Amino acid sequence: MVYALPASKKNAIYLFLGMKKIAKYLLVLSFLLSSNIAFAQKSIRLNAGWEFLKQDLGGIWEAVRPVGLGNPESVPLWENVNLPHCVNATDAVDPDVNYYQGPAWYRTKLKIENPYQNGRTILHFEGAGQKTEVYVYTTKVATHVGGYDEWTVDITDAVAAFQKEEVYQKQFKGQVPVSIRTDNSRDLEMIPSDLSDFNVYGGIYRYLNLVYVPPLSVDKMFAKAEVDAQGKLGKLNVSGRFYNPTGLKNATIHLKLIDPKGKVVAQQEKKINNLNGDTELWSLEVSKPLLWSTDKPLQYRLQYDLVSSTGSYKSEDKIGFRNINFVEKGPFNLNGNRLLLRGTHRHEDHAGVAAAMSEEMIRTEMQMMKDMGVNFIRLGHYQQSRIVLNLCDSLGILVWEEIPWCRGGLGGETYKQQTRNMLTNMIDQHYNHPSIIIWGLGNENDWPGDFAEFDKEKIRTFMKELNGRSHKLDSSRYTAIRRCDFCADIVDVYSPSIWAGWYRGAYTDYKKVSEDEFSKVKRFLHVEWGGDSHAMRHSENPDKALSKIKIGDSADERAGDASLFGGAARISKDGDWSESYITNLIDWHLKEQENMPWLSGSAYWPFKDFSTPVRPDNPVPYMNQKGVVERDFTKKEAYYVFQSYWTDKPMVHIYGHSWPVRWGDEGEEKMVKVYANCTEAEIFLNGKSFGIKKRNSQDFPAAGLRWNLPFLKGENTVKVIAKKGKVIVTDEIRFNYQTEKWTKPTKMTLTKINEEADVATLEVKLFDEAGIQCLDAINWINFGLMGDGKLIDDLGTSSGSRKVQAYNGRAIIKVKLNKGKSVASVKSDGIPTVFITL
């Protein structure tokens, strides 16, 4: 958001420019731009200076009363935190507790210095979960329900009233106390359901901004940019919604459209006599606009200046001209040409911070997706940060964004009204993003459990209402849902649940099942497919469990399929959860998608492992491990399979970078797979060439880039040299080859394998009675520590959990030594506990 510079400051700058050289005035201008007071059009992120309490208070007075050290008023104790902050930063993946769901408090003191005469002071929340109350001193100024949409609180009047009180100067020394209560308690009459396969987090886990605006400002600007499929004629319709708490009657708005090259395309000045409600401001045609696409995401800038008797308000929005078309019974077209949607999913979740991802983390994640070849993303299962949407616009990633009506059934009027509000807010707030092509209305709404009644017709009726509301608010985009067959005919685009090779059937069933589902609906898009992989777990025979699976059976996920207990044979329960298996599953899906000309696209579930309360028994407890990267951005092998199909920049990757020991018989040839987008590759084992192979995407696995090699007992080195045109890329791995056979694990070793920057890395290995490492052991490992150090755990990663299943007979964890002494331990049922002094 950009706000206007006061006229007095403008005059000062102009005078200065006339007197000094460029080098000097740029320095001063830079200073003015950095000053929140002098240049108040910049919203201020309130990141520092917060205190946090992970429990409820008896009332708001407990947050602001005078406190004497050591007195009863100092209890309960608050901790210092920075925003964004998630209540469940670590307990979401603590293997020993249910994550906290309840009230929590934040408090700070603000120095309010609004530069505008009679200006408004606003708190702008980019997202806080799930119910929020805001107080200025002891006055409640706002409440909000919903953890994912943006909202604002005008604190102007409450601040003015407080500043008249004696405590303003006496106790708070000219600062304004602001206290915020968040609450993510379980509530059946809220969305999303606590049955959802993700945590319903608490806290101020997105950025909170202090914003100063003049008495009249723009609340939202709606810019509808359209273009025909040939790209010949663009149309732009602009309407505005104003924030006018003092009831001004007249204003003038100046609008300017600037193309991606910086050229002013058109300008408009309009006098406004009605500043209430949404107002039509500008309608124009643009001949042969520069188009937004996934390869060239070109954006125009819509600048506007709202001028009234109280001053000027300036800002700008970015827009893009593009034509989208989900062909009935056919593929997806962007700007008149078929585009296969190559997608994934995103949850707002990261190791150590949970939902409170920083802008830097978000940028890293979205760039990793683009580098993997993604051109489409489904944001599951809630409205996400404006930072995410801005990056999708600038990187060229098309978006399905949805509301969190997820599982549980349908509640009462309170439940429905929250759902309506969140749909309206999502569309209003993200209307201008060219990346968005679909508004999602729900996920797995066929999943009962929160209410005694589960009435399909009532769900259909409400889904129809939401579908109509979405089209009324935005007629330019499609609606969609995933996995609710009895509502499939209501929305524009439908995704059934197809999990070939994981929850049902074999991955070789994928194409046939997709064709069957495609025939049932008007527009088909396959979102959610894939399977779990325990990072650093590998297998010499990954497809072994497929022998138990009924081939050709339906691949639709059904109730109970996600459970690790009971029911029919399925890979999700009976497979080895190895990276080796998942790379094969992904490889098969991607090679099939290249020969499905009717397919609009698909989205792998998800990009990154994320925490969930409904999977306590997974190899990393409370983690959904279907990501192609771990919760801390560590790439799994699957990342490179996608790159080999979806990217153009030459790349090559030998499978097995995190596989330190392979096994088999002496003299046995073992398969080495290479994932590359190159034309050909040559493999070398211990310096000897084993030939060149050409890439053929339909030659499964690894597009024909696979070799059977005779490993030597002990250490081996494999190197590949790949070519794409004149470009040469290489990769290399080293590993040991074990030929000794093992029996049941009976003992462990615990070793410090690295120490750097006061952090030690510990590795546990499992052995049988003969001292041979058990390379297929999946025993539960429990790390412990006593002394000065601290386990670096509760990260939700394979190497960042104190309770974790072994991967190939080993497991890793790190310890912050704190420059002291500690004793680490490892416990596993049926095996003697071992210790190491650090």
Automatic annotation (TrEMBL):
Q: Which residues form the Glycoside hydrolase family 2 catalytic domain?
A: 327-540
Decide whether keyword Hydrolase is in the record: yes
> Is Hydrolase given among the entry's keywords?
yes
Specify the Glycosyl hydrolases family 2 sugar binding domain's residue ranges: 75-214
Gene3D superfamilies in the record = Galactose-binding domain-like, Glycosidases, Immunoglobulins
Occurrences of domain Glycoside hydrolase family 2 immunoglobulin-like beta-sandwich (ranges): 218-322
Domain of life, per lineage = Bacteria
* InterPro entries assigned to the protein according to its UniProt record, in alphabetical order: Beta-gal/glucu_dom_sf (IPR036156), DUF4982 (IPR032311), Galactose-bd-like_sf (IPR008979), GH (IPR017853), GH2_Domain-Containing (IPR051913), Glyco_hydro_2 (IPR006101), Glyco_hydro_2_cat (IPR006103), Glyco_hydro_2_N (IPR006104)
The residue ranges of the DUF4982 domain are: 667-728
- Which keywords annotate this record? Glycosidase, Hydrolase
Looking up Pfam families in the UniProt record yields: DUF4982, Glyco_hydro_2, Glyco_hydro_2_C, Glyco_hydro_2_N
What the record says about family reads:
Belongs to the glycosyl hydrolase 2 family.
Q: What is this protein called?
A: Beta-galactosidase
Which organism does this record belong to?
A: Pedobacter mendelii
